[in-house]
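Troubleshooting entry. Yesterday's outputs looked truncated, so today I'm pasting the complete records for two proteins to confirm everything comes through intact. If either block looks cut off, that's the bug. Protein one:
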Amino acid sequence: MKKIFLATLFLFISILNTNAQLSSAYTNRLQFVLDSVCNKFNIKGASAALLVPNIGIWKGTHGESYAGDPITSDMLFGIGSNTKTHISALMLRLQELGYVNISDTIGTWIQNQPNISGQITIQQLLNHTSGLYSFTDTSVFWDSVFNDPAHVWQPEQALQFVSTPYFAPGTSWHYSNTNYLLAGLIIKQIMGQPLSLSLQNYLLTPVGLSNTIFFPEQNSSAPMPHIWSTWFGAGNLEDVMATYGYSNNSLFSLAYGAGAIMQTAEDNAQFWHKLISGQIIDTSSLNEMMQFIPIGISLGHPVGYGLGIFRYENFFSGHTIYEHGGTNMGFINENLIDSVTGTTISVLTNQDSINNDILFLDVVAALHKVSQQMSPTDIQEILGTQMGIHIYPNPASGILNVDIANNSAPIQLSLYDIVGRNIVNKEMTTSQKLDISRFTPGMYLLKMTSNGNMVYSATVRIN
């Protein structure tokens, strides 16, 4: 039942569209917080997005690509291992369409490769229980990258760096980039076309994600920031594109299905919102993706890994969140989607001298805190003073007071329950008290329209 409820909750969050918008007070606060935290940790450049279901999306930027070239919200950043969630979703979508079954063993497609057992299942690749050695764990791999930083590799060449497995398939858990490199190669063989085309045709284009590319198989006219890295010059933070001629081609081509996507912060936030709300894969696939394996404790909270997705239980504000950060040379990013509110946050940076923990626990957490402390819509800003609507108390128990002052036109009030059913629908011309004592405790969506136009929208908790 919990699995069905989870998918239903986010479907409810996503299907009820309103004409509300994020208030300037809310977005100004988000920008102030982004700048403050980035300044505190000396973050060179960042692009951020925060999506509030049914209301809107904020896009904020901080810092520069290089001197005189500020970060802009249309820039494509490498999202590193956040790519894995996209690949997992694509594999599940292809399973829905009958192209593959994730219980299939990989030996059909991956053969005669040392240290790679054909008896591993696709599911074991996606949840990191294959035991396969991560090709990025060896210094030989990194020497190959740095020796020719402009070289474009074939992804199959990365398999030469796969050493002895960590454990027998299915017996433990260990994060491994090899798993998703293989998943990408399998999709390429199944579909008989470049992985980038399958991503576009089956995952991105159908849901309108047009600012995402699979690099370097694809390129784009969209701007890409210079990257600042400590990986070359003895730990010094440098613009490695200007100093060493680094072009992303080498590491991105080797990362392949494990980390080769470039994306705007807005597209990243939209992807996570659309994924969890059931717009990319169906409920059955989403439930399959969310079969979490306990993998440890973080700051006292249990952490689980599903199919390309992390779950942090009771983490920020006591809410369980889902996420998958990423790291690539010069790029570190983190994101989350709040399972209670549906609020989605993405922060992408062009600097690798910070770490993912700082980005997640300080930058993303600070933006999430704003989302919990402030209402994303300022009622007076949306309505002016002419409607004079006031809803109280919230949370409510028994009676919900709806005050309407100076109203010259009837207002249509609608209240929706957790599965999107319209349980209250009435016309109002005066203030009223709504009896809600018979309703099941939980979150509800209240919408008010006048002459067909949205004038108020809010979530209401009934205790």
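Protein two, checking that the full record survives here as well:
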Amino acid sequence: MERSIYEFPAIFRRVHMERPGEIEAETAFMRAIWGRHRKRPVRRIMDIACGESPHGQIFARDGLTIVGIDRSPEMLAAGRNKNTVMPKLRFYRRNFERFTLPELSFDAAFMMSETFPVMAANSAIISHLQSVGRLLKKEGLYCIDIDRHDGIKLVTRRNVWRRRQVRIGQTRVAVRELHRPISWHSALHSIYELECTIRFPDRTSVLTRDLIPVRYMTPPLMELTAAASGMFRMVAAYPDLSFTMSLDECWGRWFAVLERT
């Protein structure tokens, strides 16, 4: 069985082109969203598909209680290793499509890294929103980071659309990004294949391959989906970490803000 890039937390974020200061900007934007759309203070937060929970580490340092969930044991272990002095940051291994937690209810939740569109089936999206909704207080906010996916052409055969090189210290990673064919009637917008050849300093190499389904989610579809869950209503959509840009000006990603009804 081929390995996954998620088994290598120190390499994962560089491969996914995380920019310096990006995590800090996202946490600041979420604070601003809470200030705009929630009357009461946010003290307890759920970080969904958290990985190492870099956002949660920032919030925990500020005294907030953070609970992160993720399905990857390697990413959770990395988060726990970094979290030796912050008791207000806790982790659980869960499948985020349907889950429960032995926790008190939360004031807010968030899902970052454009993870939401990997849920392809209608039932998966609805059960996810219901799982989140059951753990949020009334009028609690759920912020979802969603990539803008338009412009991707349907393909009839697997093909490479980009190659790049990444270096992390003495480790080099050759990255190939591919598109794969999908059925016209599929709920998916594309299937993104990420292939990484990791060359470690001791000259050993590891090949990883991850298939990432993408279901194109627009603000009107999110509004409809939120209502269909019976748990949420969408109260705002903000492009590119901005309160002033219009959705027509969005160039990269947008934030959906859902309120627990």
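Both blocks look complete. Sanity check on protein two: Residues 147 and 213 are 13 Å apart (CA to CA).
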